[in-house]
Structures are given as C-alpha cells and as structure tokens.
Amino acid sequence: MSAPLFLVDVLPAAGSFTLDGPEGHHAATVQRLRAGESLILADGRGGSATAEVTAVGKGFVTATVTGSHHEPAPDPRLVVVQGIAKGDRGELAVQAMTEVGVDTIVPWVAARSVAKWRDERPLARWRATAREAAKQARRPWLPTVTPVDVPFKPTFVLDEAAQTRLSTVDLPSVDEIVLVVGPEGGIAPEELASFESAGAVLVRLGDSVLRTSTAGVAALSVLSVRLGRW
Amino acid sequence: MSAPLFLVDVLPAAGSFTLDGPEGHHAATVQRLRAGESLILADGRGGSATAEVTAVGKGFVTATVTGSHHEPAPDPRLVVVQGIAKGDRGELAVQAMTEVGVDTIVPWVAARSVAKWRDERPLARWRATAREAAKQARRPWLPTVTPVDVPFKPTFVLDEAAQTRLSTVDLPSVDEIVLVVGPEGGIAPEELASFESAGAVLVRLGDSVLRTSTAGVAALSVLSVRLGRW
Asked: Are residues B157 and B133 in the same domain?
C-alpha cells in the first residue's frame, strides 16, 4: 500500500516538522502511524514531500522530510460539468471522477435534474468528497468544485444517441477539455442544441446506457488513455 | 431516452403478446408505459425485440412486436475477479462494471477482504444488482456472477505498483480476458506472486490509487476502447 497522504497549507522545509490539527489527529489516531513509517504531505497544488515518522503523540506526529517533488499542473485540464443527481449519485460521481483525474467539476442544474439544491450544503458535500477522494487517491493536485452553474464552454457532451465516439473524436489543442454529463434523466433536446451551437461535439462511449455516476468516470478513463496519462 | 428494457425467458414471436408477472407490473405501474410507447424485450442471451404498447392493464401490458435483433456473444468475454469489499462498495462495483460491459464477475475472498460472506445473501445481492444494472444499461447479454472463489486463470492483475500499463500491454488472443481487482486493502504480496506464476501480467492504470469500486470500471473502459467496442 502507498503511504497515506495528508494535506497541508504550506509544505515543511527540509528537516523535522510536526503535523497537528485535523490531519495530525487523522495520522495519529485513525491511520495509527508508528515511528519509522512513511507518509506523504501535499499542498494540493502539485507540491509534495515524503517523510518518515519519528514520534507519535496525542493528536500529532513528528516526522523528518526525506524527499520532495513538484508535479506540473495538468495540461490540458479535464473539466466535467456534472448534472446534479438524486440521492448519493452526485457524490459517488465526484468521488470516482476525482480518483480518475478530473481537475474541475461544475455542478449543473439541468432541465431534467430532479434534485434541487436549496442551500449550500450539497455543494459543501461535493467539495468535501472531492478533497477526501483526492487524498485517498494520492493526487498531487486537488480538484476544484465550482459554484453551481458557473458559465462554461463545452467541448464534448456525452449523449447516448451521438454517432461520434469519444474514443476516436479529434481532441482539440486547448488548455481545458470540458465534458458535459447529464443528470439521471439525460440531457434535454434544447440543451443539446444549445451546446452544439456553442461549438460542442456530441459523443458517446459504447452502446450501453450509463448512469450519471458512471458516465463521467468512463469518459475520463478514455480521455486519460488518449492523452497518454494512463 | 431509450425505450425501457424488460427481461423475458422466451422472446415472443412476431405479432401481439402480453407482458405480465414482475416485468409486466414494472412496465405498467413503475414505468407507467402508455399505448403507443416503445419497449424492448430481451432474453439476456443476445436476443431482443422492440415492441409498441397497444394496451395497459393492471399489472400487465400488451404490445405488438415491431422488430427483432440478435447480438452476437461478446468476444473476447471480459471477466473481472472482484475482491469482496466492505459495505456497499462491492455492489457499486458490480453495478458500474455491468454498465460498462463486464461479462462475468467472480466474487473473490482475498487475503485482505475485510468483509466476510457468511451466507448466500451477498451473492444474491450481487446477482440482483447485475441484473438490474444490465436492464438499466439496455445490455443484450446479461452478465453472470459466479459462486464465490470459483477457480480462474488470471490474464491481468491491477496493481498500483506495476510498471506495465493496461493501456499499452499486449492483449492476448483469447476467448476471455480475466482481470483481477483487489479488495479495499489491496492484493497481498503472496497473492500477486501466485497470480504471476499462473501467467498473469501485473498492470496499472494511471498514477492515482483507485478504490476497488472504481478500478474495475476504469479498467473495463480502457479495455473497451482497446477492443474497439467503444
């Protein structure tokens, strides 16, 4: 198993440091790290350090930095506009998409979104889910979850009726690829038309109908192969 | 949206037929089909028929066959040996893998499987989950969930420490590709060694650590592209 990853605002310089606060508590009490074991510190912006635990206290660990690394920012960035979904399907989508490399998630209230977000709590849950999933996945760059319905320029729209396949469509040379995934009920015809007139290409994966919590993960997997990341 | 799919033991001949039993109840009461709407009947073994509803009764619909199709059996078959996992992670894996095209799932009690299956209920849940997911996904071939720990010959084993990538590894010309996905805690070194001596290649996807409920879906997505299915 990989060493556990903890998020810090600022990476320690070389030498010894103390990890306290919620992450220190997690390291000492939940992960139950012991002296001699390894951990990773990450700032969520590409910077990381490996360290070896020297002592464990109540709610903190001390450790010595053994190495550091900076991972360049992903290029292009992978943005998924995710139709908000009922129950825990949205959080499942956020969790799995974070594991497979999404960089930005835009929660989208689609015409057929059954769930309504009446306050800030669902957005806070998506953000917490993305943060935890990024830690679990040992990702050096934390994904961003934007506010609901921020404007976006779609590159591709997943549509089970599309003729073009995501596996073979030309990938544009852009800073970010923006993929739209509909909610449970799919994307309404007027929404599809509006995305197309904004320059998006409608694409599909295979012949099956994918749930909204599966479609983004599958599409990101395809893009990861095509971009040479996997 | 695609027409809803219902499973039948035997497909109707051309002409009119009545769909009753649990699937008829589902069509009439849950899906609330109306006269003039379309549905798909499938036998789960590649055969399907499209039909148009002519009448809806209490717990049944009558419909007229408008077309039929036989989808050849998948070649190669995609088999996933899935380490059994805690909570609902196993069912989430079964559900999403069914959507993206798994043909056979072998529940595997790995050395690090925390969950224990003490009776037939977890297996029954996996089977019911696969059946429902196949219907949702409109899959013409139903996947099979074998009994726990049936013998298998592994082709690939997902291992985050592997050097070889699933996206570029040679795919053998075989009737079935058998992919092993570990439980939450990963695959134990002695298990990896045993798979390797049985001829399996250890492969990875990207640099992230994937949950057991995400790894199979991502790997099947990669294989679907490589096999020209997507």
From this structure: yes
CA A44 distance to own-chain centroid: 12
Contact A211 B92 (CB under 8 A): no
- pTM, 2 dp: 0.94
Which residues in chain B have their CB less than 8 angstroms from residue A207's CB? 138
* Final residue of a structural domain among A15, A47, A70: A70
Domain housing A193: 77-226
Across the strands, what pairs with A144? A104
Q: A101: nearest CA in chain B?
A: B208
Blockwise average pLDDT, block size 10, chain A, 230 residues: 88 92 93 95 95 95 95 96 93 97 97 92 97 94 96 97 96 96 95 97 95 97 97
Co-location of B53 and B85 in the same domain: no
The partner residue sitting opposite A217, judged by closest CB among B136, B208, B218, is B218
A201 touches chain B (CB under 8 A): no
- Complete DSSP assignment for B127-158: HHHHHHHHHHHT-SB--EEPPTT-----SEEE
Judged by CB atoms closer than 8 Å, whether chains meet at A230 and B138 is answered as no
Q: Can you tell me the ipTM of this complex?
A: 0.93
How many independent structural domains does chain B possess? Answer: 2
